[in-house]
Amino acid sequence: MAHDPTVKGLGAPPEKFDGSGLRFLIVHARWNESVITPLVKGAVETMEKYGAKRENIVVESVPGSYELPVACSRMIAASQIQASANATDLMGASSLLADPSATTSPTTANAPLKGPFAAVIAIGVLIKGSTQHFEYISDAVTHGLMKIQLETGVPVIYGVLNCNTDEQALQRAGVGRETKGHNHGEDWGAAAVELGVKTQRWA
Ligand code: DLZ
């Protein structure tokens, strides 16, 4: 089969975005694991290339794509609650510092960041079957993820492949059998860092 020209990726970014001080979340489905695994790997490796530290990239799995929105929603909310708790702790710590007898555990430079996620990537692979399942799940997940990012203001990168065949999906993970294709996980990793940096600028 000839090279599929629709399997293309993101162009070069207008600047080098630095994800080093940011915390990210990847939630991925486990359906179609042979496609999911390279996509997640591509996303993580690209985020690291853009400075994100592996310990600041939280990876969580759910059974199928239909579960992506609820996991993203809960984990974003939990990270925001944790951020408020940390802020309260810090206020307490600064008053403790006034007391020379108080002991606080020092944070190390390599400790994972806590607090809100700068951006989230939701990764799923939906392959069209002979029933209406594909259309219902695809539509619900797409709208669910958009709703979450608009309601929370946290970018949710759309890492859901909606494909007609296994081969189409494999090619979009860079592991096609007929032709390798391009790993879209890399584009999603780059988009997560860019949006994470930009939403901080837009704050
Ligand atoms: C049920 C189902 C089907 C038929 N196909 C897929 C698929 O191609 N990709 C995917 O991520 N998940 C699929 N699922 C599972 C649903 O997303 C979901 O996990 C179950 O319906 C349970 O809610």
How would you describe this structure to a colleague?
The chain is α/β, with parallel strands linked by helices and about 200 residues long. The chain has a single domain (about 25-95, about 110-200), classed as 3-Layer(aba) Sandwich (Rossmann fold), CATH 3.40.50.960. Helix content is about 45%, strand content about 15%. It has five helices and four strands; from the N terminus they run βαβαβαβαα. It has helices at about 35-50, 70-95, 135-150, 165-170, 185-200, and strands at about 25-30, 55-60, 120-125, 155-165. The longest helix is centred in the middle third of the chain and has 30 residues, at about 70-95. The radius of gyration is 19 Å and the shape is globular. About 35% of the residues are buried. Bound molecules: ligand DLZ. Ligand DLZ binds near residues 31, 64 and 65. Ligand DLZ binds near residues 31, 63 and 67.
